[in-house]
Backbone:
């Protein structure tokens, strides 16, 4: 089943102010700094196995956030 166009029902039912807050969703500053550090070390080929796990976890968090943000933008546009 293709879920790319399915909006999380919880986003559709949020009030406008919460939808708009999701549109501004970002990683926490500490997470963002750690992601930058790990990505830089990855480019250098210097990640330890523990850091690879950390990078994977942060990337999953980042991707989930992007999906939620996109869903929120979609709902915001639909509402006008």
Residues:
């Amino acid at each position: 089943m293709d879920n790319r166009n399915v909006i999380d029902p919880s986003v559709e039912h949020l009030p406008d102010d919460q939808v708009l807050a999701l549109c501004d969703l970002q990683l926490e500053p500490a997470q963002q700094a750690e992601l930058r550090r790990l990505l830089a070390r990855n480019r250098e080929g210097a990640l330890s196995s523990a850091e690879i796990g950390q990078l994977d976890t942060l990337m999953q968090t980042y991707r989930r956030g992007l999906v939620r943000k996109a869903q929120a933008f979609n709902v915001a546009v639909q509402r006008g």
